Design the sequence.
């Protein structure tokens, strides 16, 4: 693996790197309030919306699988950054111009490829050009960039919907402008005198199967807990706008976008807070909080209470952050050095399968209707969450403070 070493890191470069990631994640979440708009204008079924969502996830997953093999061998990260920027620009432009289901799916798949490459490239580059603090500043910048990006995307498209300002295209043109500014900033501030220091990395002898056998049950508990949490969030993003409109009386689609932004900001704040907690405690508290959120949502949809649903999303936002931070830290603690990279890559590949979960829910909505489908999904998620919470209590997890 090559490491770029500079005596004086550029604050401007770090800013534009973080801005690049923010813009890519804005492109990721911007379509959330637009799903009912697409459904009305393109005459789509509920399951069609899940294909649009799943196409993005497929692109991200493909990017992660590819980069898991080659990222460490790329000497100049600008190649990856430029590839990511081009893909994000193409994906956003296609989203702004699309007028059919399959065109939207292709656009979202390209956007997912760009976001996956951007996430990897920016994280690596922040570490290489950041201060010598064991990557703490890089991790903080990357976390904040992802939180802000995911939160601002729905705000942008939600505002366009409320103001009726070309909601299907204007958000993506603004994202393209932001990506271009970030790209120019990165290229202009890239250090010209960076010293390339090559370090030899030992070939990993342990196989993935041996690594999984070494960790045992805690690995699967962590991976499937995050998969469970992100699957529920994916269902909210795809089916949530219609459910809130029909069952909770939320007629303003822009407000749903703002709600999702608040949900993601709470999740981000939860991640920052839970870094201070013991990893196992963070995971367990997140699973319990997620079950509490399901109970509140079941009550909210039964009595058609928008207030209870909003409270459930607040609790669910904490759960999202706690489950992810606790699980990710436990994986890093438990993974042996001989196959750490393989296990981490497998961890993310496992949890990114969550993008396929809304598809069966969409089929269920088309078959039996929205209200019974939402009820069945919440009961299913509640039961699964309870099982995971019990397993998190039974499985022996390491207790190590940060």
Sequence:
């Amino acid at each position: 693996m090559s490491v770029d070493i500079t005596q004086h890191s550029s604050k401007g470069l770090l800013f534009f790197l973080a801005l690049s990631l923010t813009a890519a994640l804005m492109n990721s979440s911007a379509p959330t309030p637009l799903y009912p708009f697409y459904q009305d204008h393109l005459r789509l079924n509920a399951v069609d919306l899940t294909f649009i969502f799943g196409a993005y996830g497929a692109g991200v997953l493909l990017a992660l699988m590819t980069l898991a093999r080659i990222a460490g061998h790329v000497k100049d990260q600008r190649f990856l950054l430029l590839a990511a920027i081009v893909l994000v620009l193409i994906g956003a432009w296609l989203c702004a111009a699309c007028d059919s289901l399959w065109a939207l799916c292709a656009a979202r798949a390209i956007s997912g490829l760009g976001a996956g490459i951007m996430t990897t490239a920016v994280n690596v580059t922040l570490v290489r050009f950041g201060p010598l603090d064991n990557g703490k500043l890089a991790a903080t910048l990357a976390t904040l960039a992802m939180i802000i990006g995911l939160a601002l995307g729905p705000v942008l498209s939600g505002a366009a919907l409320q103001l009726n300002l070309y909601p299907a295209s204007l958000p993506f043109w603004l994202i393209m402008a932001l990506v271009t500014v970030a790209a120019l900033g990165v290229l202009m501030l890239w250090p010209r005198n960076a010293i390339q220091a090559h370090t030899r990395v030992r070939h990993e002898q342990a196989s993935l199967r041996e690594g999984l056998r070494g960790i045992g049950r805690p690995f699967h508990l962590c991976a499937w807990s995050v998969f469970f949490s992100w699957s529920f969030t994916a269902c909210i993003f795809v089916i949530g706008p219609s459910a809130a409109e029909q069952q909770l009386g939320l007629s303003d689609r822009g407000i749903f976008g703002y709600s999702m932004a608040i949900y993601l900001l709470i999740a981000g704040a939860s991640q920052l807070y839970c870094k201070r907690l013991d990893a196992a405690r963070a995971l367990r508290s997140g699973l319990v909080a997620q079950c509490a959120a399901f109970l509140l949502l079941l009550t909210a949809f039964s009595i058609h209470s928008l207030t209870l649903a909003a409270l459930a999303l607040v609790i669910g936002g904490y759960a999202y952050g706690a489950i992810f931070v606790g699980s990710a830290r436990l994986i890093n603690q438990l993974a042996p050095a001989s196959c750490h990279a393989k296990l981490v890559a497998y961890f993310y590949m496992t949890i990114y399968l969550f993008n396929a979960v809304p598809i069966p829910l969409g089929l269920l909505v088309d078959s039996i209707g929205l209200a019974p489908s939402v009820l069945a999904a919440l009961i299913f998620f509640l039961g699964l969450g309870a099982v995971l919470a019990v397993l998190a209590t039974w499985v022996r997890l390491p207790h190590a403070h940060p």
